[in-house]
Write a structure and sequence with these properties.
This protein has about 160 residues and is mainly beta. It is built from three helices and twelve strands.
Length: about 160
Amino acid sequence: MSRLAAGVVLVTAQEPPLDPDDPYAPGGEDAGMTATAFMSVSLDPPLVLVSLRTGSRMDDLLDEQPLWAVSVLAEHQRQIAGRFAMKGRISDRLLFADLPCDRGEATGAPLVSDALATLECRTEQRVEAGDHTLVIGRVLTARVPTTEGGPLLYYRGRYRHLG
C-alpha cells in the first residue's frame, strides 16, 4: 500500500470538559492526529471517512465526542503533518500552541488557518475493520480557506508534493 499516494489531513477534536455540569471546571483540551486514510464517501448526504487505529487516543476520543474536524494540508504544511504524526510526542496542548488555527463554528475543533480545505463533521457510524475503526462523518461545514499551492501527499513512506 506504500505505492498508493494519499492526501494528508489533520483530524482534530475538542475533548469534552472533565465535568460538564460545573461551569468552573476546566474545558476539554484540543487533540489532533495526522491521517492519510481519509476519503469522500457520499455527496448526498455529504459523508467522509477516516480510518483510526483501534484504541488510539483519537479513536477513543471520537467514540465519546461525535464532533470533529479535518484540515486538508497543503504542500508547505509538511511540518504540521510531521508534528502530529510523531510517536511518543509531547502533549497536544504544546503541539497546538504556535499553530495558526481558527475554531470551527459547528464543532469548536481547531481548523488549520491556511489549509487547502476544512471540514467539520458529526459521526454517523463507526465500523470495526481489523485493527482500525472506520469513522464515517456527516459534513456539517466545508470551506476552502485558500486556493494557493498544491496538496501535501504521502507516498512510499515520505511526504511529497505534486510536480
